[in-house]
Amino acid sequence: MHPLNDLTPAEINAARGLVQSLHGSETLIFKAITLDEPRKQEMVAYLVAEMNGQRAVAPPRLAYCVYYLKSSDTLMTTWINLTTHAIARSEPADPTFHGNVDFDEVQQVEDMVMQDPTVLAEIAKLQLPDHLTVVAEAWGFGSDGGIDDRHRQYQVYMFVSETNNLDSNHYARPLNFSPVVDPVRMVVTRIEMLPTGVDDARAEGVTPYKDLGPNEYIPEAQTLREDLKPLTVAQPEGASFTIDGDNVLRWQKWHFRIGFNYREGIVLRDVRYDNQPLFYRMSLSEMTVPYADPRSPYFRKQAFDLGDVGAGLVANDLRLGCDCLGAIAYLDGWISDRKGRPLKKDNAVCIHEQDNGIGWKHTNYRTGRACVVRNRELVIQSILTVSNYEYILAFKFNQAGQIDYEVRATGILSTCAIDENQTVPFGTIVHPGVLATHHQHILSLRLDPALGSYTSGNQLAYTETTPIPHDAAHGNPHGNGYVSGTTTVPVSGGLDLNTERGRIFSIQNPSIRNPVNGLPASYKIHSPPLQKMLAAPDSIHFRRAEFADHEIYVTKYNEDELFSGGKFTNQSQGGTGIKTWVARQDRVEDEDIVVWVQFGINHVPRIEDFPVMPVEILTVSLKPVNFFTRNPAIDVPPSTQERNCSVRVEVGKEVSGGAHGAAACCERKSLL
Amino acid sequence: MHPLNDLTPAEINAARGLVQSLHGSETLIFKAITLDEPRKQEMVAYLVAEMNGQRAVAPPRLAYCVYYLKSSDTLMTTWINLTTHAIARSEPADPTFHGNVDFDEVQQVEDMVMQDPTVLAEIAKLQLPDHLTVVAEAWGFGSDGGIDDRHRQYQVYMFVSETNNLDSNHYARPLNFSPVVDPVRMVVTRIEMLPTGVDDARAEGVTPYKDLGPNEYIPEAQTLREDLKPLTVAQPEGASFTIDGDNVLRWQKWHFRIGFNYREGIVLRDVRYDNQPLFYRMSLSEMTVPYADPRSPYFRKQAFDLGDVGAGLVANDLRLGCDCLGAIAYLDGWISDRKGRPLKKDNAVCIHEQDNGIGWKHTNYRTGRACVVRNRELVIQSILTVSNYEYILAFKFNQAGQIDYEVRATGILSTCAIDENQTVPFGTIVHPGVLATHHQHILSLRLDPALGSYTSGNQLAYTETTPIPHDAAHGNPHGNGYVSGTTTVPVSGGLDLNTERGRIFSIQNPSIRNPVNGLPASYKIHSPPLQKMLAAPDSIHFRRAEFADHEIYVTKYNEDELFSGGKFTNQSQGGTGIKTWVARQDRVEDEDIVVWVQFGINHVPRIEDFPVMPVEILTVSLKPVNFFTRNPAIDVPPSTQERNCSVRVEVGKEVSGGAHGAAACCERKSLL
């Protein structure tokens, strides 16, 4: 068993058994049983030995377990040594910490709400016609800064749907009342009327429902386009990648291990190119989604989609032919259910190659010879459904040594009821009576680099380009001159992009110099500029989203610092994440460092984002800078008609299907 | 003949004949014969009638001709009325204006240089071995602000190549001397020694060549990868688009006319979605590439790739299977040669569809039902080779009403010789003895909108998101609230992005309100932040690049204002472009406006960009905002295995080709 492999079902069972043995006959409600990764120092020794073909001593296998004691609602954290089959450590979590939402509990809450007499009394007041019914949707309660958020709660939003079709888009029919639920006692503690105007004012009570009509996304509710002809990807010799039994992927000089856990979803480890280490570990660390609505209870709406729920927990079952084209591999993931049993997430990760246009080209105008290669990419993808919303998360590798982390935001806007003819400056009307509130998505990508070596230090630097003063004395008599300069970040902290100075962050290994130009082996980080957290710096929302105020953070590596928003984010109060770690003011030059990249969007909804949103794409790119000695994609085979099998479309007349396109296989007559 | 069609060969011939008739037996050197577009007012009347199925009066066909009188090197501009077969207007250009570089002349210059005795004397001093030879490469002279740039010149850079292979990468072997050429007399006027250290100091003379070795990009010089398996795109029913004899393209509710000219390359006109006008005209207006090197003569290096040369002039002949996958249509372009004859640019534009991953997805966690569509795109592409460098320029349309303008920068860095072991802060050593200088690429995209109507006004606006003050008095007691606000730009001028305020520019039609939410019909502009021109504001380089200091410009529409850097950029002095137009301080609210989007990269070369650069991708996106009433892609047919024909790759063992991939055609057994 490789030390970096995910927990197996047998290991999950073993861990659960040992945990239960600690607590006798107490009913336990598990939130997670997951791999507790080996200490980095031991693991690096193992990887180095492994790369050198030496006998490596495997660190022990450990499991980390989070669960409630049902009788007391005490949140426990227990570490199991699976190698020695022993309990390594067990302790209750801080009483202000809450476990993540899980979908078993969400469904229990929703079912209970729909049977609660006080809720049913409100529903009755709606006087719904037979073809309409009510749907409950449980949200995390959020935090209000300690007023009402010490115990775990759900805020349940209510919607109307079609009685005979639960795939009707209920987000187009929000209601104006909201039960609050205590999930420990599993009771409705109160029903809140929701504001539907510009301020906190709200109706006295529920009134008969006025149906302003549906807005469906399901295909049978549409008149579908009929003029889109098939486009498929053919890989007649199969995929160019291999995945072994330990989920080690090899493709085009790349090598890495694919892990999967309930919280981060995909985790890549031991990422190498041409057998040179680049990253020890890469994963999405956290995402916060604060909403702009200042009214109560909406002011509490701030999701932490990884910490509050879990990217692995809500990963879609990806089906062949739905989410990718071509030759696709699927990996299942193993998480645990509420009873601590192994739960298989079918097809949680998909892997495929794709063509991304031209990779490089040059035409020699003297000889007319064009050299061109295509840009083949490898995609490691997972798709999350967090209630209404979807995130398509992918690591993408190319043949030029580049790694992209791509986020596609899609799914359905979180909506609430608004009075007819009312507008508010913190949201957009997307359907009659339906408000979609502005919100930010701020993601935090964790990069644990090992550029060129596992055993030497790395550092964060930034390069800026600035004008030379415009005078002859500075050697710039004509005023065109400008220079680049690179600064190493000495101490842990948060940093920001600066377009005016052309600031580009990079991770460097100062011990490895480029043999041609002497510059340090580096990877630069291209990330889109982030509008930082708009919540006030003295607000609870800002305090919770510890990472959301800088585009880049750098910390010195420390065990157990994986989650920049803190380990427990559900109804969190802040103070347990990256702000604490940078406050140590560690030296981070030529050290074992971790780099955190924050990026996102401020989503001011447009009506075109409803009833389901076209993907909004965000990409963070990591590109080699003086790491290699030339374009790493220089050895990609040329793009030719023999390889590409393209088909010419006739122009100048209305093209009819089939006339020109019958040759789906390769025309062997090359035009080159 | 549709008034917006490009000039036909017959029209080019007719125009040349009329021009020649003006000048008797004088030898003319033509720079361009191109369509002079109809005045907009007439053209709009025509388009509106056409859309309404009414009889439309066609404006006259006009040609615009630029040429030199060879005996005097006087640059002439003449307009021909092709409808009446008459000369409409003829006048010499301002004597400080110069025509564009053309590749006939470049090759004449290069051939002449290689036969010039003074140049040959320098080459002899290199004492090259037989297997090496010298290659000359002519560059525009640039401007020095009036010192030495009043007459037209070429700066010729010299390189070493392999004698028996002119596709050897000579940019890896730059020489340290440079002939300056007068192209009118076609003579070398001087030979400049080039600086090879940190400042203007330069060698006394040419010395025997020290070969520091090749750095080739051609495939036969590489050990090519052998593990990349074929990936092709199959469109068994052909393409989903049609192109008629007037180059009107129809695809997925889109409609537009594809034009092509020597200067801008692709021009799209009358762009509509679902028969609603969106843009009257879209094109790349200009690009400037100023270099950071302050030394002489490099300080003059500042290309205007459209104005100095021409995007259509240097468009690649795109070959089936080389530059795209799938079912591809090619359009030829017609330009003129130096004698004013029609010159066909074969396959100058290619058109194809591509798959860009998921378009939208939602999974209902209650029912487990996933709805997902793919994101089909239509690409209208042209590839330019400007000496060493390539630009892949594409308009991309999707099914959600979005238009992207994508630029892929590739090709070979412009290099110069540098002393061994020397470094400079304004460039990167990419090969022994080879410096690639920092440079900016600043592009200017011209958008002539007609959002929703040709006859009502448009305006530029920007939306910002800002926090509500954190107090109860402002209705934001918890500090999370923020609001969006939109400002209309009242007067022509330049504006900038502002990430901190989340500033998003949009084009609006204030006369058309969204029927659901009452907001103006708009398209927003997503463009990457631009590091503005780094040359000093009082430099000649800055003055020439009139558009390079703001991410957005807005002007009131005026005839003959197409080129934001001025009509004649070769050795230009500034003062004829967008700065002049915005100085009119026109009102631009609810008017006929033009919006100019500036974007680009500051290219600090990395060694991985040599010997040929992996594509650097820049995208400007135009997205509907409250223009439609819902997601325009809601009616895209679902993504299913029946349509997508994907193939499952086995995991957990080394995958061998063919084992799993033989089924290149569709597995009919859907797993859904």
Automatic annotation (TrEMBL), chains A, B:
Catalytic class of the enzyme: oxidoreductase
Give GO BP annotations, semicolon-separated. amine metabolic process
Q: Which residues form the Copper amine oxidase catalytic domain?
A: 232-634
- MF terms (GO), sorted A to Z: copper ion binding; primary methylamine oxidase activity; quinone binding
> Which parts of the sequence belong to the Copper amine oxidase N2-terminal domain?
2-68
Cofactor binding notes: Contains 1 topaquinone per subunit.
PTM (free text): Topaquinone (TPQ) is generated by copper-dependent autoxidation of a specific tyrosyl residue.
What residues bear 2',4',5'-topaquinone in this entry? 389
Q: Which residues form the Copper amine oxidase N3-terminal domain?
A: 101-192
Keywords linked to the UniProt accession: Copper, Disulfide bond, Metal-binding, Oxidoreductase, TPQ
Which EC number(s) does the record attach to this protein?
A: 1.4.3.-
List each coiled-coil range. none
Cofactor entry: Cu cation
Tell me any Pfam family this protein matches: Cu_amine_oxidN3
User: Which InterPro entries does this entry report, sorted A to Z?
Assistant: Cu_Am_ox_TPQ-bd (IPR049948), Cu_amine_oxidase (IPR000269), Cu_amine_oxidase_C (IPR015798), Cu_amine_oxidase_C_sf (IPR036460), Cu_amine_oxidase_N-reg (IPR016182), Cu_amine_oxidase_N2 (IPR015800), Cu_amine_oxidase_N3 (IPR015802)
Active site annotation, chain numbering = 305 (proton acceptor), 389 (schiff-base intermediate with substrate)
How does it associate, per the subunit comment?
Homodimer.
Which PANTHER family does the record associate with it? Answer: AMINE OXIDASE, COPPER AMINE OXIDASE
Query: What is stated as this protein's family in its record?
Result: Belongs to the copper/topaquinone oxidase family.
* Name by which UniProt lists this protein: Amine oxidase
